[in-house]
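Field reference: sequence -> structure
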Amino acid sequence: MPNSNEKILLRGVNWIGDAVMTLPAIKSVRAAFPDAEIIHLLKPSAAPIFEKNPYIDEILIYEDRFKGIIGRIKLANILKRKSFSKAILFQNAFDAALLSFLAGIPERIGYDRDGRGFMLTNPVRFAGEDRRIHHIEYYLNLLETVGINAEYSTPYIFQSLDERLAARELLSRLNSPVLGINPGASYGSAKKWLPERFAEIAARFIQDTGGSVVIFGGRGEEAVAMEIQIIASDIHGELIEHKDSSQFLNLAGRTTLRHLINLISECDAFITNDSGPMHISYAVGTPLVAIFGSTSPELTGPPREGNAVIRSNISCTPCFKRKCPFDKIKCMDGISCEVVYSALKEIMPQKKAVFFDRDGTLCREANYLNRWDDFSVFPEINSLERLIEQGFYLIGVSNQSGISRGYVDENFVNEVNRLFKEVYFLDDFFYCPHHPNDNCSCRKPELSMLYKAKAKYRVDLKSSYIVGDKDSDMLLAKAAGAKGILVKTGKQAKSSFADYTADNLADAVDYILKNKK
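Structure field:
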């Protein structure tokens, strides 16, 4: 437990999509209060989003026993005993303010809406902002307005390596590439594209790529999933709905939220309505095509890089209605299979890359390289040209905690990385400047740097390689589904996580060219 007198209650939102969109704000709260104990109160429907999140010390479940007047008093007393110093209410409900008020939390921060402003010590003016700005920014704005620095970042759901490997094993019998499809949307029918068009996309994808389709859905969506499966089977001309098929897997109603997160992360691409799974997809780095009807991508859409948004430009959208008042849902009916499939082809990962650590891999280890006198590339670096000839992107990914520790000037890091791009063949260079204690999503072996490269260059991580000199590089490869090559020129001479151990860069290049897919 953090050593601090500061104890912060976060009142989380309960809808999966909005829960994902609070992740950058929660990251900002941790950055602003690094030693505080942070407890997240929310209902069980969204709790799995935060299970592995290092910015939260405890998840407190809003159970059914806390419903009603007596239940709320019980929960307020539980909160009072925890002696919170501050409550930050991401949930907009009156109930959220009432609980923190009854619990006697000294500082209560939230939007002044739903008649609850008198119960907040720091009421933030509300004038319909959630209909004017993206919801990620809506939650960040709450913090900024009360003086908490809140930087925008793409939401990132933390996963364990074991979770990733289990999901990968479940999908391993399917042909590659794997397309995930989510035809449902809990808000209402006005957000749902036509099942027969999802089916046509599924059949065409299997025919064109030789790959496979996984269909997802919650409880109550099994029937529409089966309808899509049967129609796709008829179009494809084979019985792809057979349970042992290597081309189709129907998981509707059969996954927990945590399993859904892990399985979507292992898909190569995703097609979905505006829904909770849409937000999960971009937060686990899976490129997606998001189909919007009654709602607005400006408010709840995915980040644009590496993803596509499809919508009809008709006068009545967005209407934000659950059910369309017309005989047919015009905004959804106007979106053709051709438009969606074309967008899918644009976002599909198709390129292969070799990712390189820097110090100890491309250049000699200098223990926080911070001056040119200590900079020396390995002579085998010229062998990287052979990878370019075979169509590989060459991309650097480096942890540079010396920046946050004050040992290294960030401008110098950028100069060194620029040299690798201009002289030594690399297409791009990504680095993490944060301290290990920050538990950031970009520090290897977390995957944010790879997700950025994947989105920018359409990289297929499972056809790629990661070359480095430490366990963190090899664990990064395991998490991404790439091949990990340890070079014995840096920190470690061996790693139990490596797929291959190379003497140097030239040896690593030989291995890649011999084993490339």
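Note: The longest helix spans residues 195-209.
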